[in-house]
Design a protein that fits this description.
Layout lengths: L1 H12 L17 H32 L4 H9 L8 H17 L14 H10 L5 H15 L8 E6 L6 H12 L9 E5 H4 L6 H18 L2 E7 L6 H5 L2 H4 L13 E8 L3 H13 L13 H10 L8 H4 L5 E4 L5 H14 L6 H9 L3 E2 L6 E2 L6 H4 L6
Helix pairs in contact: 2-3, 2-4, 5-6, 5-7, 15-16
Length: 388
C-alpha cells in the first residue's frame, strides 16, 4: 500500500489541490484580469475534483472495504463521470498495482458485481439492442442476488455476426469481475478451437466437466462462455446437464455456488432479421419490438435445424433460461460503433469520417439497404484510413 500511495501522491501533486491558493490570490488583480482568472480558478477546481474522483475510484477497486466511503466522497464532486480514456488509465494503474501485490485478502473480493457499471455499459456502449440490454441486466442481477440458487443461469445469445454477442459477454465479465475475461473465475471456450474433432467427444466431455468443477471450487461465482455454440457436439452439452437441471431443496448448501453459462451463436440470425424487417415495413418502431415477437420463431428454428445445439438436451429439455435475440444493426448504429472505435484509442474524429466509415459497409436487403451485413465487425480496422 505504501508504494501505491507514494505513486498516487506524485500523480496528485501534478494536479492542483482543493483549496490551494491560485494565481493572484495574494493580491487583488486589476479589474480587467478578474474574468480570465475566475475562469482559470474554475478549471483548476474541476481538475482537483477529477483527481479526487480518480483516487476515490482507485481506492474502491484496490481496497473494497473503503468502497462505500470512496463513493460517498466522490458523489458530489465535479468530474464524477470519467471519460473513456480516463477509465483506461485507471484500469492500467489498478493492474500495475495488483501485478506485484494482492489487492485484497481473499479471492472473493475479485468478484465485483458492479450492476451500476453494467447498466451504464449496456445503455451507452451497446448500440441498437434494447431487448438484450434489458433482458441481460434483469436476469443476471436477479440471479446473482439470490441467496441460494437451485441451478445455474443459462443465457443463449443469437443473431448475426457483429451485432454485439461477444461484446455483451465481455461487458458482463468486466463488470462482474475485477479482472474481466482474465479472471480465474471466467472460462471461455470456442467450439472449433477447443473441441474441434467429433471423435474425441468423450475426452472433451471429461476435460470440460473437470474444468467446470475446478473453477467452481476455486470461485463462489463463475462465468462460462461458449462461443460458436451451434458447432458444439450434443454430447459436449450433455456434460452441462447436472448444472442446468433443478436441484432438490435438500441438496442446497448454505452458500450455493453461482454459475452463469453464456452460449453465443449465429443460429437464428436470419429468422431474427426477417422478423425485424417485417415489423419495420409494417410501420413499427425498432424500440417497440418485443421479445414475444421474436423468441417463439427463434426457438422453432433451433428445434428444426440440423445442428448439435438444436439437438442437444439444452434445447430439447428447455434447460436454457432465456434466448436473447440480437437485432441487425442499421446505418446510425454503425456510425456509433465507429465513434466508439476512435474514442477507445483516444483518437480524434470528424462527423464526415464516421459517415465515410459507415458507408464502407455492405447493407441488405438489396432494395431497402437497411441492415449492415457485418454488423459492427471490422470497424476498428477501418479507422486507420481516416487518421491524419
Amino acid at each position: 500500500m505504501r508504494r501505491l500511495r507514494l505513486l498516487l501522491l506524485l500523480l496528485l501533486l501534478l494536479l492542483p489541490r482543493p483549496g490551494a491558493p491560485g494565481p493572484g490570490d495574494d493580491a487583488s488583480p486589476p479589474d480587467a484580469a478578474q474574468e480570465p482568472l475566475r475562469g482559470l480558478r474554475e478549471r483548476l477546481r474541476a481538475a482537483a475534483a477529477l483527481s479526487r474522483r480518480y483516487w476515490a475510484l482507485l481506492r474502491c477497486r484496490v481496497w473494497p472495504e473503503d468502497c462505500e466511503r470512496a463513493e460517498e466522497a466522490g458523489a458530489g464532486l465535479l468530474g464524477w463521470s470519467l471519460p473513456l480514456l480516463g477509465q483506461q488509465y485507471l484500469d492500467i494503474l489498478t493492474s500495475w498495482y495488483c501485478s506485484f501485490q494482492a489487492c485484497c485478502d481473499s479471492g472473493d473480493c475479485r468478484i465485483s458485481n458492479n450492476f451500476t457499471g453494467l447498466e451504464w455499459d449496456l445503455s451507452v456502449r451497446l448500440h441498437g439492442q434494447h431487448l438484450a440490454r434489458e433482458l441481460v441486466l434483469t436476469t443476471v442481477r436477479g440471479y446473482l442476488e439470490l441467496p441460494r440458487p437451485d441451478k445455474a443461469l443459462a443465457l443463449s445469445f443469437h443473431g448475426w455476426s457483429g451485432t454485439g454477442k461477444n461484446f455483451v459477454a465481455r461487458l458482463l465479465a468486466e463488470n462482474l469481475y475485477r479482472d474481466g475475461l482474465r479472471s480465474d473465475c471466467v472460462e471461455t471456450f470456442i467450439a472449433t478451437l477447443h473441441f474441434p474433432h467429433p471423435k474425441y467427444v468423450d475426452l472433451y466431455k471429461e476435460k470440460l466437466a473437470s474444468q467446470i468443477k475446478e473453477t467452481q471450487e476455486r470461485c463462489p461465482q463463475t462465468l462460462f462462455i461458449f462461443d460458436e455454440a451451434e458447432k458444439l457436439h450434443p454430447g459436449m452439452l450433455e456434460a452441462l446437464r447436472p448444472h442446468l437441471e433443478l436441484q432438490a431443496p435438500e441438496n442446497h448448501r448454505v452458500e450455493s455456488p453461482k454459475t452463469i453459462f453464456l452460449f453465443l451463436s449465429n443460429l437464428g440470425g436470419n429468422t431474427i432479421n426477417e422478423a425485424v424487417l417485417t415489423l419495420l415495413q409494417a410501420g413499427g418502431a425498432r424500440e417497440e419490438i418485443r421479445l414475444d415477437q421474436l423468441v417463439p420463431r427463434l426457438q422453432a428454428e433451433m428445434e428444426s435445424t440440423d445442428t448439435g445445439f438444436g439437438h442437444s438436451c439444452l434445447v430439447k429439455e428447455n434447460l436454457i433460461d432465456f434466448f436473447v435475440p440480437f437485432l441487425p444493426l442499421e446505418y446510425h448504429h454503425v456510425r456509433l460503433c465507429a465513434r466508439d472505435a476512435f474514442l477507445s484509442q483516444g483518437l480524434p474524429y470528424t462527423e464526415e469520417a464516421l459517415d465515410q466509415i459507415a458507408k464502407m459497409m455492405v447493407y441488405i436487403p438489396k432494395e431497402e439497404q437497411l441492415f449492415s451485413s457485418q454488423g459492427c465487425k471490422s470497424i476498428s480496422q477501418r479507422i486507420s484510413y481516416f487518421l491524419p
